[in-house]
UniProtKB/TrEMBL annotation, chain A:
Keywords: ATP-binding, Kinase, Nucleotide-binding, Serine/threonine-protein kinase, Transferase. ATP binds at K59. This is cyclin-dependent kinase. Transmembrane segments: none annotated. Residues 30-260 form the Protein kinase domain. Gene3D superfamilies: Phosphorylase Kinase, domain 1, Transferase(Phosphotransferase) domain 1. Belongs to the protein kinase superfamily. CMGC Ser/Thr protein kinase family. CDC2/CDKX subfamily. Its EC number is 2.7.11.22. It catalyses: L-threonyl-[protein] + ATP = O-phospho-L-threonyl-[protein] + ADP + H(+); L-seryl-[protein] + ATP = O-phospho-L-seryl-[protein] + ADP + H(+). The keyword Nucleotide-binding applies. One of its GO terms (molecular function) is cyclin-dependent protein serine/threonine kinase activity. InterPro entries: CDK (IPR050108), Kinase-like_dom_sf (IPR011009), Prot_kinase_dom (IPR000719), Protein_kinase_ATP_BS (IPR017441).
TrEMBL record, chain B:
This is Cyclin N-terminal domain-containing protein. Residues 30-39 have a biased composition (Basic and acidic residues). InterPro entries: CABLES1/2 (IPR012388), Cyclin-like_sf (IPR036915), Cyclin_N (IPR006671). It comes from the Eukaryota. It comes from Ranatra chinensis. The lineage of its organism: Eukaryota, Metazoa, Ecdysozoa, Arthropoda, Hexapoda. Pfam families: Cyclin_N. Residues 369-450 form the Cyclin N-terminal domain. Residues 30-57 are annotated as: Disordered. Transmembrane segments: none annotated.
Amino acid sequence: MRIIDEQKPLSRASRRQSMSEIGFGRMETYTKLDKLGQGTYATVFKGKSRLTDNLVALKEIRLEHEEGAPCTAIREVSLLKELRHANIVTLHDIVHTERSLTLVFEYLDKDLKQYMDDRGNMLSMNNVKLADFGLARAKSVPTKTYSNEVVTLWYRPPDVLLGSTEYSTQIDMWGVGCIFFEMACGRPLFPGSTVDEELCLIFRVLGCPETPLPVASVSDTLLSRAPRLHQDAISLLTCFLAYEAKARVSASDGMRHIYFKSLGPEVHLLPDVASIFSVPGIQLSPDPSISKSSKNRRLSMLL
Amino acid sequence: MKKNKYNRRLAAISFLSNISLDGSPRSFKELKTQGECKSQRISSGGGGEQPPKSAPPVVFNVSNNSSTLNSSNESHFALLSKFLEHDVSANCSVTPFRERTSTVGSEYGQEKFTALGYRKRVLPQGLLSDEKALGMFSSSESMVSTAGSKKEVTLLKLTKGQKLKGQRLVMVSQTKKIPMLIFSVLPYNKFRGDIRTMSCTGRRRNTSGPRPLSAINDTLDPWTLLGIEKGQDGQEISYGQLLAPSRIIRAADIVDAPAKHNPVARCFSYDSATQRVFASSPPVVCCENKSGECSAYEANMLDDPELIAGKHKTLMTFSSYITSVIHYVRAADLKKELNDKFRDKFPTIQLTLSKLRSLKREMRKISNTDLLTVAYSFVYFEKLIVRNYVNKENRKLCAGASLILAAKLNDIKGDHLKHLIEKTEAVLRLNRRELLASEFAVLVALEFGLHVPTCQVLPHYHRLLSET
């Protein structure tokens, strides 16, 4: 250990000091550009770093509330602190002033919908990144019963729609399936406006939970709705859209599905912080038609 | 009954009549104390008895002892044997030395001051001037206590409730009443160095225990109490460096160790006006802890569930089973013993085990329906303790803030959250402004790491469940 120390040129303290000397970590380093949105607790601005000219998103959180710091901020910060991934938005800094807390995020110029709409003229190697962890929770001691009013209705799984309050990570795999479909076709799979309507839409494709339709007929329905998805993709999709939460494929098993085989084995060895585009041979293609490359684009969004 | 009363009365009268106005016990007229010594004196061999011949020979001969004492070259044993060789009939006076005006009582710093003054006044020739001698005689504690136990019945009675621990004792010679020896009995502390640092801090006693809600609050800054730097009016502070994932931070801390990156040192230079409070936050030791111990945190590390019985038990090992008999023990004795054990284990922690447990009980009382939240709050609170952020002034704030942070992380919102905050204020007797201000300070002290591994939470949760 000691030997490594001496070789390390910059200590954390001195690095921090030198960074603050160049202005890192101070609000005046950032120019506020546009207001991007406003919520109950926070206002989000588009900003620009005067040091690096990089665009940033500044989430200004007011601290003086009757209940102290907003819980979304507390949760978002403590979650993002632990997450370092090429497909997760980076929290660069937290700046605390007397009355407010500003989270400095990397700037993402489009949400997924805009990103998909622009896919025709998109040539960049941009990664899709997950953002807004204010309502996210960490997997924890499985004792607490949760609310069943979770997840955007379109992506809420049938067990939760039917009132289940005991759920775990499988709750999200249903949503992954819905979004996978939506990315391929450009329209949502189950766009219900009420819980009942949402369930009806699901039943129409999968059959009733008591008498589910056979996989072959579900596949046919999905194939007819999403002609751009071929057989492997439909097979993966049906793995996500299982009624029973336990039967849904997990994220790590899903990545080993035959659908992703064309990406090669290197993607599984990729470090968390490395972009999928650092793997040789994987790149986006502007061609929106059904081809191997456009499939790759979609894949990168799921990883 | 009557006889008893009479005896007590007699004892009281004789006690009172033995107090002389010049400070020396009347029964020892030959043992007149030095006029300049204003301290309260209790002589040996009260009640006018001559020390029995069988008494342990703690003896002083002025003529040759001063030189002996000055020679620091002598080994402890040689010195001690010199003492013991002397005439048994000589006298010994054990004088607990206590500056009465000092309200702080047994603060080391205060005593040090009085001791210095006293030494200057009484011992111009500089007997025992060096620390070495002091240390040497503190090791001879047993010698004094044997002297006290046999014949100094009066002494023990008079000093009831006063311990020798941390006090300065003066021995004087029999005939010329020349102070022979000053020494203190200090509790053994591995981190003796810290005492010095502590001694320059004034303690804010009044903030502990029951106190009026509104009192002193204006001067309480949770940031200062935690020893964390904070942006002053209009000043910004960045916590970017805390955003590294916890496992990376750990590695980085180990790597940085020789650079002596000392967060507390920053605090010291931060505001000289409030140094008093800063200093009460732990000294250097804490940052050494910080790298290793936060990663090494284990749920039962501090509040060891096994630590419930003291030595008051007999373990019997039979061929096929082991059984233990737990003897009756006064609750106060047990508490003291457990606290001592805890302090031996964690000498730098400024909280007793009983206090930690009572705070945890109160935290549970506040949120007794959601034990998972309580379990999380225990992890946060204990991590703060392990990282040495918690002291007497801020312990309730830290406990309350930990609970509120845990609640917010565990989906408690709206009216439930409001209710929880109100209950925290009431049970822990805190005021809301302070509580909420410390919430964020505690969040920073925890380096935003509220998502703790399940293995750290579960043991607390199971314990809470089993105690229901």
